[in-house]
Design brief:
With 174 residues, this protein is mainly beta. The protein has strands spanning 2-3, 7-16, 21-27, 42-49, 55-62, 81-87, 90-95, 102-108, 115-123, 128-135, 138-144, 166-172. Helices cover 0% and strands 49% of the residues. The strands form three sheets. The chain has a five-stranded antiparallel sheet with strand order 1-2-3-4-5, with no helix packed on it. It has a four-stranded antiparallel sheet with strand order 6-7-8-9, with no helix packed on it. A hairpin with a 5-residue loop joins strand 4 and strand 5 (55-62).
């Protein structure tokens, strides 16, 4: 957990070896301990010193903050993006909030404020992608295979789709 004005769930991390920081994205949502839907939503980016673990950077966003949306063609949805990565000036997205899920590459305009083209990299594989990392000219994503096993009763039904076997898949970006 990362925190500011309550607890936030760590939903993404990357190491910034050049600055000696671990960057963590945190947000409050229904699976976060102590989550209160009546409170304004909060998310942030936190930088932790790799040696000491102390927080060195903090960038916060609350629901009442100004929001700038990425523009896209009318026939292209940006809904359901779970992971977003910058590669060679394009955005690569794990878009698992849509059916079927997909791994997308979005070409951006010069100002990086609008999508000018989109390419499907993977579509509807049996393993549903959750998060990824780019290394060189490939994206490696963590995915969960479907399972026929019945979920234990103590696990929230909203989590049942994540109970399968975990796999790592690689897709070239060139």
């Amino acid at each position: 957990e990362v925190g500011y004005d309550g607890r936030l769930a760590a939903i993404g991390m990357t190491v910034d070896a050049h600055r000696g920081l671990l960057w963590v994205v945190g947000t409050a949502f229904f699976l976060t301990d102590g989550y209160d839907p009546q409170k304004p939503a909060c998310s942030g980016l936190f930088g932790f010193d790799l040696d000491s673990g102390e927080q060195r950077q903090r960038y916060l966003r609350r629901d009442d903050a100004a929001t700038h949306f990425l523009r896209a063609p009318a026939d292209l949805t940006l809904y359901g993006i779970d992971g977003l990565y910058l590669h060679d000036g394009d955005l690569v997205a794990v878009q698992n909030g849509v059916e079927p899920w997909r791994l997308m590459r979005f070409e951006l305009d010069e100002d990086m404020t609008a999508v000018t083209a989109a390419q499907v990299l993977e579509l509807g594989q049996p393993a549903v992608a959750t998060t990824a990392a780019i290394a060189g000219d490939a994206i490696h994503y963590v995915a969960v295979l479907p399972t026929d096993a019945e979920a234990p009763s103590h696990i929230d039904p909203l989590l049942h789709e994540y109970l399968g076997r975990t796999v790592i898949r690689t897709v070239p970006l060139d």
